[in-house]
Write a structure and sequence with these properties.
The chain is mainly alpha-helical. 89% of the residues lie in helices and 0% in strands. The chain contains two helices and no strands.
């Protein structure tokens, strides 16, 4: 399995087994981390596209 797939499975297990407030806070922290990564990748892609378009 790829590392990405393993992390997705681990997050799904964490979501399914969250019972306390601290468990839910951990899930939200993971979601925020994934969102930050996605937004960073999109930003870098847009910056790269601007450089290609300007040439």
């Amino acid at each position: 399995m790829l590392k990405r797939e393993l992390r997705a499975i681990a997050l799904k297990r964490l979501e399914d087994n969250a019972r306390t407030v601290s468990d839910f806070e951990e899930v939200i922290k993971e979601w925020d981390h994934l969102d930050a990564n996605r937004e960073r990748k999109e930003r870098y892609h847009e910056i790269g596209r601007e450089n290609i378009d300007s040439k």
